[in-house]
Amino acid sequence: MNPFKVIKTETEYRAALARFEQALKVPEAERSYDDMELLSVLIEQYENAQYRIDPPDPIEAIKFRMEQAGLSQKDLIRALGLVRGFLRSFPVSVN
């Protein structure tokens, strides 16, 4: 294998992904797991720098999950044992 280096460009990133995919095709008994681990760390480092995903807003995350589950504000109130006025910041209608 070629020596490893920090991934700095999209071209290097794509080459690293291809290299990792090739490593997965090698029979398990012949794989260099140390090399695969190092390559995966380099790929992850590049992805974290270039494709950052910010955490969601907590309120929006709750609304989204409620919509997915078909829950209403009343369901949330019952589940959390809250007073209705507290949920004014959750204008979700899923009926």
Question: How many whole angstroms does the radius of gyration measure?
Answer: 23 Å
- By DSSP, the count of extended strands is 0
Question: What proportion of the residues form beta strands (DSSP E)?
Answer: under 5%
**What is the helix content?**
55-70%
Low-confidence stretches: none
Average pLDDT works out at 86
What's the assembly state of these chains?
A: single chain
Helix-strand topology string: HHHH
- The number of helical elements comes to 4
What global shape is seen?
elongated
The secondary-structure class comes to mainly alpha
How would you characterize the largest beta sheet?
none
N-end to C-end Cα span: 58 Å
How would you explain this protein's 3D organization?
The structure is a single chain. Helices cover 57% and strands 0% of the residues. It contains 4 helices and no strands. It is an all-alpha fold and 95 residues long. The mean pLDDT is 86.
